[in-house]
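B., you asked whether I could sanity-check this one before it goes into the benchmark set. Here's the sequence:
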Amino acid sequence: MPTPPPPGVDVPEEVLFEGRPALVPSLGVLGLAIVTLGIYLLVRWVQVLGLHYRITTSRVVVETGVLGKKLEQLDLYRITDYQVERPFSQRVLGTGNIVLITVDKTNPRVEVKSLKTDVVALYEAIRKATEVDRGRRGVRMVDYE
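And here's what the prediction gave me:
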């Protein structure tokens, strides 16, 4: 694991992932698109158009909305646990979800859904970046259980 810089030193952010969810993330969506002769893909396209993810070495930014925009940001050092979800219907199409459990009061659970990327590799990159960010900020997580 890379050595974190001393606390207080600014390190440039690197983008780990940037993009939107997959238009057809699972076999269920594919089946629905076929049954509705593609009409459901228009609905899904509007949903995907209104969601943008940007994951960097310091934060996770989720932008939602098509006309009105809402921007939520989560600093990586606040993440306490990670989950990678790859149900069969998503694995077939090469997509997956990452769920971040946080200590953030306004956003205790951040779901990054339907990513068309290697979610296991992205999970590993987020996990490493979280540890580096904690070290850079001088933050330690304590479990009282």
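One thing to flag: The first strand starts at residue 15 and ends at 19. Otherwise nothing jumped out at me.
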